Amino acid sequence: MGLLGSKSSKEQDNHEPAPRPYKAPVAPSNLLVLHRLGSQFFDADGDLAHEFYEQVSSADGRVTMRRVTHGLRHQGMVALEHPRLHPDCPCVMLMM
């Protein structure tokens, strides 16, 4: 009658959760990695390399190499030769 404990204990016990149906585990769709971000660059001539250098001659006649950091385009996405497992794979793999 307005108090917190006014209902009988029999009425409270009837609210048990229904059992859930069993669902088999499913592998995520992004389990395999097919492409990766390339680590090389294209220069203005279309050459592909990790780093580019150019010869620079100073006023006293010395020739040195200077790394080129401008005018380069990133290689972009590269297809992998063999699919690989995603590093954040939530599945446990076991080989017996």
TrEMBL record:
Residues 8-18 have a biased composition (Basic and acidic residues). GO terms for biological process: regulation of mitochondrial membrane potential. It comes from the Eukaryota. Residues 1-25 are annotated as: Disordered. InterPro entries: FUS1. Coiled coil: none annotated. GO terms for cellular component: mitochondrion. PANTHER family: TUMOR SUPPRESSOR CANDIDATE 2. This is Tumor suppressor candidate 2.
